[in-house]
Amino acid sequence: MSTSVEPFNRLVKLAARAFYDDITTKGDNQPKAGGRSDNRGIAVVVLDALTRRQWVREEDLAKDLKLHSKQLRRTLRFFEEEKLITRDHRKETAKGAKLYSAAIAATADGQQVGKEGEEKVKLHTHSYCCLDYSQIYDVVRYRLHRMRKNLKDELEDKNTVQEYICPNCGKRYNALDALQLVSLDDEYFHCERCNGELVAESDKLAAQEVGEGDDNARRRRREKLKDMLQKMEVQLKPLMEQLSRVKDLAVPEFGTLQAWEARASAAGRAANGDSSSNDPSKSSQGLGYGGTPMPFIGETKVEVAFSGVEGKDDVKPETSTSSLKVLPPWMIKQGMNLTKEQRGEVKQESKMDGTLAAPAVELSDEKKSINGNDAQSNLQDEYVKAYYAALLQKRQELEEAAKKQQESSQTLNSNDVSDSSSSRQVGMKSKRVEIDGDDDWEEAPVGASTIESFKVNDLNFEAEASGDDEDDIWEEG
Amino acid sequence: MFFHIILERNMQLHPRYFGRNLRENLAAKLMKDVEGTCSGRHGFVVAITGIENIGKGLIRDGTGFVTFPVKYQCVVFRPFKGEILEAVVTMVNKMGFFAEAGPVQIFVSNHLIPDDMEFQSGDMPNYTTSDGSVKIQKDCEVRLKIIGTRVDATEIFCIGTIKDDFLGVINDPATV
């Protein structure tokens, strides 16, 4: 928020210095205070202080600025009339004040003030004020526009009634008399009295320097206006630049006092949810306070707009995931043209691989086939093939292992054991599902080898073993 | 600006109109008397749209005329300062041009014509831009802003300007 507020704050400061520099907010009823309490510049100070705050209780602001609250209120009322700030007055108890304090505490740049005042307030009317940035932007723009337009109109004689003068008798006419002055003979106005040709006053000034004080004053005035316009353009240039800079930025909006309070305290709760012990009390106050739900309507509206902007991006991932969605088994029928993802094969396989912590390549292949079989009954054929392949491999391995055992029965290497045992386990499981009797003779040695290996092997093996255990359970279920 | 208002007037009716058609005669006389007149307060009475109510007549001593207080609805037209009007140019001269919007006469002095328009005298005096694209002459229509009014008891005279945004010629019959 601070990034977008900054240019607006600069705008406020510039405007304050440009337009409210010498504003005295003296009441009409105290003219005698004149020289002693010259409070010019207070307006600028107050506005500057407001740029560093959001909603602020006026008493707190007065305390911070070391101003008398009456004086501050007069200044604030002036700014309210100038449409620079919004104010909110409400009767509130100590509780309401606390709510405000909580909100203040939640905002990052809010000053921690006014805590000590809580006990004193009992159903007093409190006033809060806040800069209204969007309105400030408009007000400043309008003010500049009016200034420029007024000067230009004056300069160009836009809305002035042309005056005519008779050079002979000095009688003056203005444009409203035009109808009586037109003559049918020529295209000039003629004096009613002497029938002399009238001249427009400014033309007369240009033609003959009569040196009449009135005319000179008029010309001087023109010069002055031109000068003024130029000065204005130069001196207000920073302000205009700031206005154009701010033009396309999102205006920081604090909402109404209630909305802001609710939002700020909610944000505060979210930010340090479990940090302080008095948080629950805060939240309960927030709930007890009637205005809480309303502000959040505004909040959700903002979110809706946000999603609308990014609608495209949101839709895309949804569709892509839905295409990858695994269809439940009861929806899959024979002859359906489904991808593997839809059948849920690939995912499960990858999952299995993940849990199995990358064993030997051939093992994983075997397991895949096993999983595929277990998962989908209509892949029976594939399974059978794989099964026989596995069986064949198994037999070979068994033979090799037997040879090995025969060769070096006492000098069993732990790595060898792990390899052989794990491969045996896989093969064994696949058999266990279908054929039990054949494998009975194998079980004893395998069990022995795993027990042995537990003692010697490392973590990697344990993980593998646990993965196999899971497989077992899954298959049986 | 036009207004639809209710006005009241005391009508004096000659005894020869008394009879079945007294009310019709009264209304006809009212229209003849009132329509097209101008009062400083309400502006020009453009048209009478209806008779609201005719009060009790009072016979004048000596003459036999009867005075009826008549309330009537009418449309009035009153120009205001700052109002934008469309008007037809009636006369162009060196000092500016005259235009009329209905019953109202408006004078636009040459100071209130955009600076890029020059007066061209001749058979058909006119104000023309340097490139000749815009020409103000008799009978062309202009949109102007009233910057001053003089309201007399029986007439209203205005001065206008076309030296502003969106003002100037809107339809030139000579070129169409």
Task: Provide the structure class of chain B.
Answer: mainly beta
Biggest sheet descriptor of chain A? 3 strands, antiparallel
**Quaternary structure classification:** heterodimer
Low-confidence runs of chain A: 28-35, 108-121, 203-213, 274-323, 346-364, 366-370, 412-440, 442-473
Q: Tell me what portion of residues of chain A adopts beta-strand conformation.
A: 5-15%
Overall residue-averaged pLDDT value of chain A: 65
What is the gyration radius of chain B calculated from CA atoms?
22 Å
| Shape call of chain B | elongated
Low-confidence stretches of chain B: none
| Head-to-tail CA distance between termini of chain B | 29 Å
- Output the number of helix runs of chain A: 21
Query: Which two chains form the greatest contact, residue counts included?
Result: A-B, 18 and 23 residues
Derived from helix and strand composition plus strand pairing, the structural class of chain A reads mainly alpha
Number of strands of chain B: 14
Give the overall shape of chain A: elongated
Helix proportion range of chain A: 55-70%
User: What is the straight-line distance between the termini of chain A?
Assistant: 56 Å
Number of strands of chain A: 6
The secondary-structure element order of chain A is HHEHHEHEHEEHEHHHHHHHHHHHHHH
Number of H/I helices of chain B: 1
Strand order within the widest sheet of chain A? Answer: 1-3-2
Report on the structure:
The complex is a heterodimer of chains A (477) and B (176). Chain A is mainly α. Helix content of chain A is 63%, strand content 5%. A three-stranded antiparallel beta sheet of chain A has the order 1-3-2, sandwiched between helices. A three-stranded antiparallel beta sheet of chain A has the order 5-4-6. In chain A, strand 4 (163-165) and strand 5 (172-174) form a beta hairpin. In chain A, helix 11 packs across helix 13 (293-309) and helix 18 (380-407) packs antiparallel against helix 19. By secondary structure, chain B is mainly β. Chain B is built from one helix and 14 strands, in the order βαβββββββββββββ. In chain B, the strands form three sheets. In chain B, strands 1, 2, 3, 4 and 5 form a five-stranded antiparallel beta sheet that branches. In chain B, a hairpin with a 2-residue loop joins strand 7 (96-101) and strand 8 (104-109). The radius of gyration of chain B is 22 Å and the shape is elongated. The chains are: A mainly alpha (477), B mainly beta (176). At the A-B interface, loops of A face strand 8, strand 12 and strand 13 of B.
